[in-house]
Design a protein that fits this description.
about 260 residues, alpha+beta, eight-stranded antiparallel β-barrel, 12 strands
Length: about 260
């Protein structure tokens, strides 16, 4: 297995803290939300729409998932992310190891670019973590992150994202939907693949907790700021019994 690592500049400034707000929307609201964002924002010029896939890592007893569901002040997510559809015919794919850390409402993201053979992004290799565990932990150490327990690949999550820029402030806005997941660990989960959550999520990322005036028009969607997590919502869905009411909805909601 050949992994081409693109080293980050060790003298570069640490990532900036930013405020991330999430607004869960129902399946029926996705079209209206997309139209509204196109009206009040600019489409992202470089990547207006595309598919994102993330392989999430956690401890064997899912410590970070439990922190997310309990609303802990300190949360860290480790994932490997790549872009484009699964039927891409490139022999080599670009991937990114990401450490996303949140402390209350504020968060940062460290990122390391790599290139790997495309075969490693198929299911047999995803369950092995794409890269060796020793390399994963060594790279996380360069971010200043030292998990106490070994991290394991837990779930693959794929979704479609529309990207926007709020024109007055430059705040980044995204609309994510068609959120599908496949569990890699034997428990929790029912062995299902491509389990799709209902609804979507609007994410707004900037340096202020206040919404720009243009984005306050989202009030017509009758949505509230939530701590919706794709990672935890997907694990919860797999952990519920097949046919359970509200299984594919966020915790506390039945849509």
């Amino acid at each position: 297995m050949v992994v081409q690592l693109f080293n980050a500049n060790s003298n570069s400034a640490p990532p900036l803290w930013r405020i991330e707000r999430k607004f869960y929307i129902t399946s029926q609201q996705i079209g209206l939300a997309c139209g509204l964002l196109r009206h009040v924002c600019r489409r992202d010029a470089e990547h207006p729409v595309g598919q994102i896939t993330s392989l999430y890592f956690d401890t064997i007893d899912l410590n970070e998932h439990r922190k997310s569901t309990s609303g802990d002040f300190r949360k860290d997510k480790v994932r490997i992310r790549w872009y484009g559809e699964s039927d891409c015919r490139d022999e080599v794919r670009t991937i990114f190891l990401e450490l996303k850390s949140k402390r209350g409402f504020a968060g940062t993201k460290h990122r390391q670019k790599m290139e790997v053979p495309a075969d490693l992004l198929t299911m047999p290799y995803l369950a092995q973590g794409i890269i060796p565990k020793t390399q994963l932990h060594a790279m996380l150490a360069t971010f200043g992150y030292f998990p106490l327990d070994m991290l394991w690949p837990v779930v693959v999550i794929t979704y479609w994202r529309h990207r926007f820029i709020e024109p007055l402030t430059g705040v980044r806005v995204s609309l994510d939907y068609r959120i599908r997941s496949t569990m890699l660990r034997p428990s929790p989960g029912n062995g299902e693949r491509e389990l799709e959550l209902m609804g979507g999520v609007i994410e707004i990322k900037g340096t202020s907790i206040e919404l720009p005036p243009t984005l306050r028009q989202m009030g017509m969607l009758n949505v509230d700021w939530s701590r919706f997590s794709k990672y935890s919502a997907c694990i919860d869905a797999h952990d519920e019994g097949i046919g359970t009411v509200g299984r594919l909805s966020p915790s506390g909601r039945i849509v």
